[in-house]
Amino acid sequence: MPVVHLTDRVLIRASGPDASKFLHGVITCNVQTMAKGDSRYGALLTPQGKIISDFLFYAEGDEVFLFDVPAERADDLLKRLVFHRLRAKVTFEKAEDRAVAAVFGETGALPEGALYADPRFPALGQRLVLAQADAQALSADLSAYESHRIALGIPKGGADFAYGDTFPHEADMDQLGGVDFKKGCYVGQEVVSRMEHRSTPRNRLVEVLFPAPLAVGQEIAAGDKAVGQLTSVAEGRGIATVRLDRVTDARADGVPLLAGEVEVELRKPEWASFSMDWEKKVSALDAKFQGG
Fold this sequence. Notes:
292 residues; Gyrase A, domain 2; Elongation Factor Tu (Ef-tu), domain 3; 2 domains; five-stranded antiparallel sheet; disordered C terminus
């Protein structure tokens, strides 16, 4: 069974009598409905609704929670959580004695630790929080887990979307349970709610299939018009950020999608519900004239 020590992740512990209430009003996921052993996917946003950091979020105990966060974002996230705390009785610290591992594939014996479901998509597997010393004995081959997540079309912050410049919808967080639209206020909530109810995101992250090697950063074009960019690649599959409207127009006109000289196929991930209708939309006026 693949068990990979995720050396690019850090754990931050939040604890105190006000932890649940405080965090519920700050981050995008629902904290107050969590019981010990539960997990969520969420983010801390700017007031303008852009992602400061996404994370997996675990209920370790009564009023004790763990953020499973990209190592590159840990210090900034910690600083911002403390900034928002004001007089709330909650403390934050890096859980430097603990580590996190990804568990996926066939089941088998595991090192001692706390196991949490990956809340984004069941096929991703589970996360194991264990002692740092025990984690050192595990494989740290991140490429194995990267291939696994890319095959499932799961975005990764810092690779598939930029922190500080991306709305949750553009990172598909709304599709992966990363935003609770019923829980009420949190930082950036007004902007995210408006996007959910009043508009359709132009940019989405989708799966890409290609028959020849391609590189991260390669542009995807329809004729002379750019429609997207590859953000992750592994074994003939990838993830790309695309303009859905431009891809729809290209497909409706029969224009192939090319990354360099390689024709690519775009697919909606299995877990996604947003529209990828490639039929060109026709206005009511156009329909009237076409109908004669």
